Amino acid sequence: MLSKIVLKNFKSFKNETEIDFSRTKYKFLEDINVAESGVLKGIMFVGANASGKSNIIIAIKLLLDLLFREKDINSRIFKCLFSDKEEFTLDYYFNINKKEIRYLVINNPVKNVLSEKLYIDNNLLLDRMGLTARSSIIDQKENLYDENDLDNETLFLRTLYFNTKFAGNETLKCWFEYLQNSIYINAFDRKVISYGKDDLVLNDYLNTQGTDDINNFFNKHNFNQVIEYSKEFSDGKIKLRTGDDSKTVFFRREDIDTVIPYEEESLGNQTLLNILPSFINIINKKGILLVDEFSSGFHNELEELLIKYFMRNSESSQIFFVSHSTNILTTSILRPDQIYSVNFSGPEGSWLKRFSDEQPRLAQNIEKMYLSGVFEGLPNYDETE
């Protein structure tokens, strides 16, 4: 599980910023929101628009993209635009099989130089600087590499994985399995990226998995609706069919006699249906679920339901999400150490405040505390005319 990330000169995070995902002293929700490793199952980022919340999600997503999707990415877009420094740093810490994995990436897009270091329990297994590297990942034998093996656009860790699958190193194999199970969702534009073999885009998911798991979720949580996936629907009175030979989703509600095509459903129902396959998939595996713009079209209680559903059903997976819905800021859903406010201070860039730093008690209303400014992360609009 991802236990910490340290950003420096990355996007809006100009100064070194450490974001800890490990549990603190709080005892409530211990069996639900905290994994056996002591790492938290979920983190919420809240704050004003353009404060830098999504950049934390992007920092985690970038690692997944570079390892499993795109090996050539324009690195210049990730360097802090209002900093004179040429390089940005991403430092990831994971807890895998009771071992600490640290993976440090330093990227200088101006000089086109990549640096990487990989540690397991402080033992250096990979050290790469530009076009030279040494690694003892395989069989604990140190191997040297040069420009014939490396290029300045690709993570060498990616190359080693696809060439060797980390044969003989079970810890790294488990780590990469965890990373490949991960999923990115932008709820606003309904974009879903699965980094493993599971296709979680709605129509592809329904073609392979059917509707049972989604309808079981609806029935269990009293949605009073189910879905059907077919080319046409007929109830004897009305006949609906798709314009071509493809299938589409029809919603069947208990309180009406007909069905509603997906395109005619509410924004919230469409968004829910697009992200449900990812939620169902990730809780049965070990991986990371990244959700940007989580509050897109959802009723407050639906957001609460999805977060509770994840925390109660996942064992070793994590969710990192951005939301503006302050109703989630309650100790019945999240612990104070699971919430960060994100702030932006002009030329100094983004910075964070963890709610647990103020040591709120279980009985306190942390939503009201946030809205009153205790935890920072509020816009400073002038409402007077």
The poorly predicted ranges are none
Q: What is the CATH class name of the largest domain? A: Alpha Beta
Spatial separation of the terminal alpha carbons: 49 Å
Number of discrete helical segments: 9
What pattern of helices and strands is seen along the backbone? EEHEHEEEEEEHHEEHHEEEEEHEHEEEH
Q: What global shape is seen?
A: globular
Helix content: 10-25%
CATH topology of the largest domain: Rossmann fold
Pfam family, one: AAA_21
Protein name: AAA family ATPase
InterPro entries: ATPase_AAA_core, P-loop_NTPase
Organism: Iocasia fonsfrigidae
Could you characterize the architecture of this molecule?
Pfam families: AAA_21. Residues 45-329 form the ATPase AAA-type core domain. The structure is a single chain. The protein is of the alpha+beta class and 385 residues long. It has 2 domains: 2-181 and 285-371, 3-Layer(aba) Sandwich (Rossmann fold), CATH 3.40.50.300; 203-268, no CATH class. Helix content is 24%, strand content 28%. It is built from 9 helices and 20 strands. The strands form 4 sheets. An 8-stranded antiparallel sheet has the order 2-1-4-5-6-7-8-9. Strands 11-10-17-18-3-19-20 form a 7-stranded mixed sheet, with helices on both faces. A 3-stranded antiparallel sheet has the order 12-15-16. β19 and β20 form a beta hairpin.
Ordered list of secondary-structure elements with their pairings:
Layout: E1 2-8, E2 17-20, H1 30-33, E3 42-47, H2 53-68, E4 88-96, E5 99-108, E6 113-120, E7 123-129, E8 132-135, E9 143-145, H3 156-164, H4 170-180, E10 183-186, E11 191-194, H5 202-209, H6 212-220, E12 225-230, E13 232-234, E14 239-241, E15 248-253, E16 259-261, H7 267-283, E17 288-292, H8 300-313, E18 318-322, E19 339-344, E20 350-354, H9 366-371
